[in-house]
Amino acid sequence: MRPFCLAVVIAAGIAMSSSTGVAQHAPTAGPYKVLKTAKVGGEGGFDYISADVEGRRLYVPRSGPMGQLTVFNLDTLEPAGTIPNVRAGGAIVDPKSHHGFSTTKPITMWDSNTLQTIKTIDVDGRPDGIMFDPYNERVWVLSHMPPYATVIDGKEGTVVGTVDLGGQPEQAVSDGKGTVYVNIMDKANVAVVDAKKLTVTAHYDFSSKNVDNGSGLSLDAKNHILFAYYRLPSPVAVILNADNGDIITTLPTAMNVDTVAFNPATMEAISTAGGGSIVFIKENSPTSFVVEQRLQTMLGARTMVLDTKTNHVLTMAFEYGPVPANAPSPVPGRIALGPPVPGSFTLLMIGK
């Protein structure tokens, strides 16, 4: 994943000729709607969004010359502080130690109560994605170049090891019991990792399904089911058994899916897509799945986080102007965007 700011792409002839904000078209029938929007403005691109559910804070890294980690109240979306000079792709908080980590290089470690920097941690590669594993209180930093994963002790802020995942990682999830799964973007597989030994124990290969450009990954830990998302040749979720990699079924999603989540309270796999929609897949049983709702949000709102206390989904995007006539050739699987409208950066809260 890379910071999203100006034009990136299109696949299938979507053209936007004017500034686009929250979509006005009626969503597919379903229980979810946009509950709240907050136009928070600010400069710089964005990538991951994350939440400290216990601390009730929302973290939005902003890139660019004035890059900083912006912090908001998770319930009201009101500003709650900043950490300046942290130009990161992602951020995560260890709820036990209250240590936060941002994917700068070196990694920035900070106090989630005071928002003060504690120290920096040297890592190799190009830090991008980030995940906290509650199993052993470790932070996983993902990179699109070796070492593909660097693992840090959340309490001490020390590197405990690296993992060769066999390819470029996108999203990772933990079962909370010692296994971490990682969607490998360039290999059409999911890596299965022993979280204690930091060794890959298996790769679940999906090449038979003719999928490419992996992105999000979510897990129903109770029923041992993974939802692996792919952008090409058409957006699809591969639903599989987490214990052995057997594919249960596939379902269509939406163009330019990025980060995703599974909500065990509602038994739904949730994905945001750059085309301006959220797709909810309902798990009726461990063998029965259906696309429950496609909700219109904002063009470019492709990353999300789930607030497991309220069951709200948080996402974000700019409003965009027209795509320039001389825009670069489109990249398959993504959406064409014009320049962002100044001051238009917006947070969205989705719920029932």
Q: What gross morphology would you assign?
A: globular
N-to-C series of helices and strands: EEEEEEEEEEEEEEEEEEEEEEEEEEEE
Indicate the radius of gyration in whole angstroms. Answer: 19 Å
Total number of helices: 0
Low-confidence stretches: 2-27
Write down how many β-strands occur, each being a DSSP E stretch of 2 or more residues.
Answer: 28
Please tell me the overall pLDDT: 90
Distance between the termini: 29 Å
Q: Strand sequence of the main sheet, in spatial order?
A: 1-28-27-26
Task: Look at the helices and sheets and give the structural class.
Answer: mainly beta
Main beta-sheet annotation: 4 strands, antiparallel
Q: Please indicate the percent range of residues in DSSP E strands (runs of 2 or more).
A: over 45%
Q: What is the helix fraction of residues, given as a range?
A: under 10%
Report on the architecture of this protein.
There is one protein chain. The chain has 352 residues and is mainly β. It has a domain of 172 residues. The protein is built from no helices and 28 strands. The strands form seven sheets. The protein has a four-stranded antiparallel beta sheet, with no helix packed on it. A hairpin with a 4-residue loop joins strand 2 and strand 3. The radius of gyration is 19 Å and the shape is globular. The protein starts with 32 loop residues before the first strand and ends with a strand. The N terminus is likely disordered.
